[in-house]
Amino acid sequence: MVSLADLFGYAFLVPLLMVLSFVIVGLAGTRLKRFEWGGWLAVGFAGAALVVGVLIAAAELMDPSRYTNVQFTWFHLPAAPGVFPNGFSLVAGTLVDPISALMLLVVTVVGFLVMLYSIGYMHHDHGLPRYYAELSLFLAAMSGLVIANNLFEFFLFWELVGVCSYFLIGFYYEKPSASSAAKEAFLVTRVGDVMFLLGIFIYFYYYATTGPSGGWAANGFVFVRGTTPFLAGAMGGQSTVLTVAGIMILGGAAGKSAQFPLHVWLPDAMEGPTTVSALIHAATMVAAGVYLLAVTSLFIGFTSTDQLAIVAVGGFTTFFAATMAVVHPDIKRVIAYSTISQLGYMVLAVGAGFAMVGLFHLFTHAFFKALLFLAAGSVIHAVGTQDLFKMGGLRKSMRVTAAAFAIGGLALAGIPPFAGFWSKDDVLSAVYSQLPSHPAYWPFFVLAVAAVFLTAYYIFRAWFLAFSGDKPRDPTLPHAHEGPWVMQVPLVVLSAFAVGAGLFIFWPNFQGLLLHGAGAAGIPPVYGPADLALSATSVFLGVAGIGLAWALWGHGKVFVLADSSPVQPLRRLLLNRYYFKVGFDWIGAKGVYTVARAADFVDRFVIDGTVHGFERMFAELSDRLRRIQTGVVSDYAAYVVAGLIAVFVLLLFVAPYLVAKFGGG
Amino acid sequence: MDVASFAGPFLPEILLLAGTLLVFLLDVVRVRRNEVVGAVTVLGMALALLFVLADLGFAPIAGLATISSGGIDTVPSGTPLYAVTSLGLVFQAIFLLAGLLVALASLSRPSRERGAPIFFGLLSLATLGMLLVAIASDLIFLLLSIEITSIATYLLVAYTRRDARSMEAAMKMYIIGALSTTLSFFGASLLYGAYGTTNLYAIRAVAGTGGYPVLVLLGYGFLIVGLAFKATLVPFHAWAVDVYDGAPTDVTAFLAGGSKKVGLFAFFLVFLGPVLLARTAPSGGPFTNGAVALGPVLQVTLSVLAVVTMTVGNVLALLQKEMKRMLAYSSISQAGYMLIGVAIGTAPALAGATLQMFAHVFMKGAAFLLVAGVAAWGVGPLIEDWRGLGTRRPLTAVAFALMLLSLAGVPLTIGFVSKFVLFSAAVQAQGYFVWLAVAGLLNSALSVFYYARVLKVIFFEAPAPRSEPLGVVAGASEPEVLPAGGFGYGRATAIALAVIVIVAVGVYPQPVLGAIQAAAQQFVSLGP
């Protein structure tokens, strides 16, 4: 009998379909004018991938205890004395388990909807074949990453995601700001990637023989499912090597997921098309970092020092990013900061040992954040500006968009029964449950709770600015109207998810999925009186934030802070993004920014400089050497003789001396 | 002794010889159409390949049973001239694949072009010489087989008889080649003087144990120089660039993809013995008047040659403005990587080097074939003449990009696998061999520069303004659009085949890699 579970072996179809889409649209897109330059083709492939992804997720939901690992040995090096005494394998494979099924669902659903939405949103742009091809590859890379069954494969797709994001953020490459934003995103995440790679090397080097049947290296570094993480035994409570490796993994995740201090690239990445922002923020690039942390914590293991570091980074980023969103006038950037902040919640949960809780928030966040972005895109599409202070009164002409943005906002603010409430609440009570045993988590827990208030405030500030009031504050704006159906359908579908995705938690199968994904560690918290009090607090804070936004900005009002106000310097600080980009001289050695800047400096001047220096040096050398190539045959014969003499000098004098001195190989 | 048992081990060679003779015979009876003689050659080579694969037990297609059970690998008793080993058969397959790709591509030449029988006949003859190299077990037999190949390739370079550049290239190749041959034979005679035999396996049994007289070192030194000519090692490479550039491009594809590996396999045969024994038996033996064992000395020398070759080749490739010269230098640097395998001399290292040579057929050989096809569209010899090919001929551009990415060693291509296996073997061998891996990695990084530059020109630069559209042969009396993507079916097939192998083995290397690893293991453990 054919059952849905048979599909688990075919999870590779998802990336494969998107790669096909990339190849076909990339090669033939310019001849496909009638299919929106290949756009409809890409939508078709994304739809097929969606079907596979949803079916796999559904099958996993039916039986959440299944871990289906399908792999083939990519290549194998036989055992030999040395670093890998039991041999070394590289394997390629797919692992369908509760975590990857959940992520696959997110990636394929959001990916398909964004692709569909693009048909309307991008219609007037140039270079569409390139756009759809790159978007397809982006989705292929992300879905490949999600179902990768070993570290090496994970890293390959991780890099591919980075490369695709570089091309997509810089899609409007004729705009200098776009191409510099793309470069910035690439370089900053590169700092993280280098750390990730170092982490992998540490695992490779120190734990090659750990694990069953010859060790990890002989098995291709696959993610092995166990009741405890893979290296839990090797940890022995606190292992310095493992701690360092964990910090390196955190660095990689912080780069991709835009966590402090590597967050700087993400707001600037708004230079890409809004659809790309939606995809990057909701389902793909930034989610990869959190996913990496979750996979590492479940399969490999973090030490408790690592966990504290992760909690610290996550908790601090949550609050830090939210403060910047409070004052920003650009609709997309407000949402961008909110992404950084929400990712902080996920990182926080993973760090506290509740990977599945973090992924649950990732799951709901993907839908309401994609919704917010696509709604914002709809606004930008209609009025042609991103400046909130020029908009106003848009709810009259754009009812669907206004409602969608409001639903997304309520979900983000954590108002029940919208999706964000359930998952954010889960995160908070998960961390809360760890406070008695880990008092060091307290400050970060408080920051995370405080961020709830800010979140509700900034997102409704944006809503009131854009949609309330009678008419746009800038009279020159074009008359707004809703986009075509291809843009409205994704909004409606995502709205439904933003309302309902959180309610999944009441479905026993979904609970089972989270429980099974978590293994022994990281079971979602049980609701007790303290959790209810916490929920009440967070809802109260959310409502208070919305109330403040309404009081200050409701009915088209514009709240102007007096120049003499004592909080004016704070506002300027926030508007300038803590001067992170304006110049670190101002805050000097304060904060880790120096490190980020130094990393950037190293990357740009030292590494680039060295590379270019070497390039020039070799160019020079090359030029000299080229003159040897005279084309005269007697010269060549002379070279042979000279070479003969050189070989004899080597053989008779140099090599015996070296061998006698240092011993042979 | 019946005919079948004599012919058995030589069936591939006999088939190829028959094909060669048939081509020349057809010339005599004035059947000179390109398609006809080409088809005969392709058929001969394909049949020979089939029999080689059959001898290998159809590994990797049917698994590794034959190789891993050591069925055909036996130590030759007495001192016969030939010994069929699994690794030799793998090399025969590599050589035949190189010849086959070139022959296939050349099917697409204009059918009335002159010199078709000469071209295909010489191609078969050169391949025949290469097949003999792969089964040689005697130094003199080895050098004579190399000579068969060499002489055939000198003539191949000049076969058009009209192009002054080809003639000049052939002349250079001949003169330097003759010099090198002389040096090789001189080296062989010195070794005979020292060992009293020219049988490679007999020498393998004694060479490298204990110390050595200077006579042995001189012999090996002359052999290094002589064989380095074939393998295009620096500083014996200077001829190669001019010849690769000046020869008809299809012939260049054969030289780079096929015949240069003859030199490298000869390094395997000649130098593995001393290197191996150096690892297993560091002292004792007939030559005890030196203080230092022979093997390590040869290893150091070969290592230095390898690093110099890869570095100089890469550095020189950096600033080349012409596509063919860039590929030629890149080909030289690749020889450096391959030499690492012999210098280390362990089974994984030999496997890595062999895989690198297998890959090189499809990366570099096919790249030259593609360049020849593109040149036929009227695209100039400079790299910048290729501007905008990505938008005009996306399939061709993507195929070329795959070859270059594979040469650079990007994952999911065969080039990544072979470099990975080779360099990790160097790391495994430890000692100073780790530095060979480091040098190889640095060189790979360096090589990315010039490959990326070509990709940038092809995909990101606007096409040069030109009077006639692409796909039209410049200067042709009436514009004619070339069939099958403009390459002709034969060339398109050859290139498609190469691309498939590059990607397929890159994605799933285990069958091919496993067969090569098993063969290398057999070759190393062939004890005296």
Secondary-structure blueprint:
The complex is a heterodimer of chains A (665) and B (528).
Chain A lengths: L12 H16 L10 H24 L5 E10 L10 E9 L1 H24 L6 H20 L3 H19 L6 H31 L25 H4 L4 H17 L8 H4 L5 H9 L2 H16 L3 H24 L3 H21 L3 H29 L10 H4 L1 H15 L5 H16 L7 H26 L17 H16 L7 H11 L10 H25 L14 H8 L17 H34 L6 H30 L3
Antiparallel strand pairs in A: 1-2
Chain B lengths: L2 H5 L3 H18 L5 H22 L9 H4 L17 H21 L9 H19 L4 H19 L6 H32 L4 H7 L7 H18 L6 H9 L2 H32 L13 H25 L4 H22 L2 H29 L13 H4 L1 H15 L5 H16 L3 H28 L28 H19 L2 H16 L3
Low-pLDDT segments of chain A: 582-593
The span between the termini of chain A is 60 Å
Largest sheet of chain B: none
Oligomer: heterodimer
Number of strands of chain A: 2
Summed up, the helix count of chain A is 24
Residues in helix, % of chain A: 55-70%
Structural class of chain A: mainly alpha
Largest sheet of chain A: 2 strands, antiparallel
Mean pLDDT of chain B: 83
Strand content of chain B: under 5%
The ordered string of helix (H) and strand (E) elements of chain A is HHEEHHHHHHHHHHHHHHHHHHHHHH
Order of helices and strands of chain B: HHHHHHHHHHHHHHHHHHHHH
Provide the residue-averaged pLDDT of chain A: 78
> Quick one: how many beta strands of chain B?
0
- The residue ranges of chain B in which pLDDT falls below 50 over 5 or more consecutive positions are 280-290, 471-484
Classify the beta-strand content of chain A into a percent band: under 5%
Distance between the termini of chain B: 27 Å
Spatial ordering of strands, largest sheet of chain A: 1-2
| Largest two-chain interface | A-B, 57 and 75 residues
Q: How much helicity do the residues of chain B have?
A: over 70%
